[in-house]
Amino acid sequence: MSEQGAPRRWDRPDASMSLLADLLSGSGLDPDYEAAAARRAASGERSSRSGRVSRLLAATVLLGLLGAIAVVQVRRGAPVAERQRNALIAQIHQRTQETDTLQRQADALRGQTEALRRSALARSDAGQDARQELDRAADVAAATPVSGSGTVVTVDDSRTARGREAQQDGRIYDQDLQRLVNGLWAAGATAVAINGQRMTSTTAIRSAGDAILVDYRPLSPPYTVSAIGGDDLGDDFADSAASHAFRTLKATFGIRYDIRQDGSVRLPAAPALDLRYARTETPK
After folding, report:
1. What is the distance between the alpha carbons of residues 227 and 184, in angstroms, rounded to a whole number?
2. Is the link from the previous residue into 222 a cis peptide, with omega within 30 of 0?
3. How confident is the model at residue 230 (pLDDT cuts 50, 70, 90)?
4. In sequence order, which residues have a C-beta less than 8 Å from that of residue 118 and are 6 or more positions away?
5. Edge-first strand listing for the sheet containing 191-194
């Protein structure tokens, strides 16, 4: 057949699909690309291994950088937190000293008032009877200092309950002091004080965080509980359930628990009470 009569390639119906078929079969790739692919296939294992090592090194560097940043932030924040803590402690000590000063002034004024009252009541028989009644009421309300023979009980946290690695089982809690004071009352005590804070019928022993408060005044260990009640108070308290409980705490957790008899226990007066009066309203 002559050249003019030969059918052209693009005259075939499927001639337009040959390029797509070449792409799908991969035969249409440039020889340079085929050579590069062969080289990558030959060194594929080595490349993947080096890639894993590179990623591992990058992750290690990133973790190290994050750790360094965290350490720097902690070190920067530690002095600030320490300064804030020291400032709060200084404020607590300052407020405590101010409260103690005001309490001493109140005690001095109370003493002057008591002297004037006694002087006024001593001028008549009725006044003397009234003074005796007021004295009895003052003793019940712990409004006057007292002294006499009694018992002194000292309790404190165990050594393992101190410091940063403190064990909470060896601490003295507010309920422990409540049990101790109630045990002394039950054993016959007529007056009780904790670290110089006189107990009354309305005194509250509570906790605020790690601190123990008596009438909202913070106490520091060791806790010395002094009680007036005669020579037999120590023996009677030693046989009480409260004393047995503290001996168990001492044997189990190592807390300090000491009892001694004192022939001259002196207790201060309790802070003045806020008196409240009720009255009936006259209907309109």
Report:
1. 7
2. yes
3. confident
4. 131
5. 197-198, 191-194, 223-228, 146-156, 256-267
> How far is the C-alpha of 269 from the C-alpha of 105, rounded, in Å?
13
Burial label for 246, CB within 10 Å (0-12, 13-18, 19+), is buried
CA-wise closest residue to 256 among 207, 218, 210, 222: 222
How far apart CA 234 and CA 28 sit, in angstroms, is 108
In the predicted model, what is the mean pLDDT of residues 52-65?
A: 75
The CA-atom distances, in angstroms, between 53 and each of 39, 56, 184, 272 are 21, 5, 74, 78
Higher-confidence residue of 46 and 116: namely 116
Q: How far apart are CA 29 and CA 13, in angstroms?
A: 24
CA 85 to chain centre: 13
Sign of CA dihedral 215, 216, 218, 222: positive
pLDDT of residue 50: 61
